[in-house]
Amino acid sequence: MNVMKRLICSLICLTPLAASAADWEEIYTQDEVIVSKMDLEGTKFYAFKGETIMDAPATRVMHVLLDNDHRTEWVDRLYEAVELEKNGSFDYVLYQAFDLPLTFADRDYVYRGQAKRVSDTVVELHLVSVDHADKPADASVGVRAELVNSLYRLTDVEGGKTRVEVEIQTDPKGWMPIWLVNLVQKDWPLETLNGMRGELSKDYCGDYPLPEMSAAPVADAAPAEDAVDETQGKSCGGDCDCPGCADKGEDKGEDKGEACGTCESK
User: Fold this and answer.
1) 3-class SS string, the chain
2) Which of 22, 97, 205, 254 has the fewest CB atoms lying closer than 10 Å?
3) One pLDDT digit (tens) per residue for the chain, 266 residues
4) What's the pTM?
């Protein structure tokens, strides 16, 4: 990949965008990676998606995604990766800075990552930009870019392998020619998935436990149709203006001093 391609891919392709299969248009296949694109409403940028099968269990693939110590070894042009916050095994905040050549200002991101299990065979890692006091936007190395919506999806397949999907949408902010972005960013899913695949064979790559399925919330019990009104039989004395008393006195021609049996007035 030449310098300009590496530059654009570093900026634009850091984020996944959830969409239905019908929204994606397949554009090429290389190195067993299927790359697709999608039109985005309200912008001239495309979203891109990559999909491949990796010869490793999802626990090992997740280790690559969550291993911040070696992230700079496979993420293009990334020179700083700092964990700002960790809230359990599957919820964290990272700062990342990217070195850009030529006349482009360096970019950095602060984003939150959250992994969750969505079915017995599928785990997703969602990434989205956040603000953090330890790395405020006004202290950016150049331009604070925005990770709009990012998703890695890991699906168990037969033979101990994993289908890995990454869907991308980000806003590099600052100045960036749209025509150039759309020309070269289509290679980012290929480069990213190949980089991840290369990490799987490293000695330091282990197995990271996957999140468990969250318990379904308990729904509030619906009232029984024949539930007894606890106010039944309470006497109002017949001298109030509640609809029940008025109904007994006026519509039924009964003495208005007779209790309606449902109001709580005394």
Assistant:
1) CCHHHHHHHHHHCCCCCCCCHHHCEEEEEECCEEEEEEECCCCCCEEEEEEEEECCCHHHHHHHHHCHHHHHHCCCCEEEEEEEEECCCCEEEEEEEECCCCCCCCEEEEEEEEEEECCCCEEEEEEEECCCCCCCHHHCCCEECEEEEEEEEEEEEHHHEEEEEEEEEEECCCCCCHHHHHHHHHHHHHHHHHHHHHHCCCCCCCCCCCCCCCCCCCCCCCCCCCCCCCCCCCCCCCCCCCHHHHHHHHHCCCCCCCCCCCCCCC
2) 22
3) 454 455 445 444 443 344 556 689 999 999 999 999 888 887 777 888 999 999 999 999 999 999 999 999 998 888 999 999 999 999 999 999 998 777 788 999 999 999 999 999 999 999 999 999 999 999 999 999 998 888 999 999 999 999 999 987 778 888 878 776 666 577 888 988 999 999 999 999 999 999 998 765 444 444 444 444 444 444 455 555 555 554 444 444 444 445 555 554 44
4) 0.72
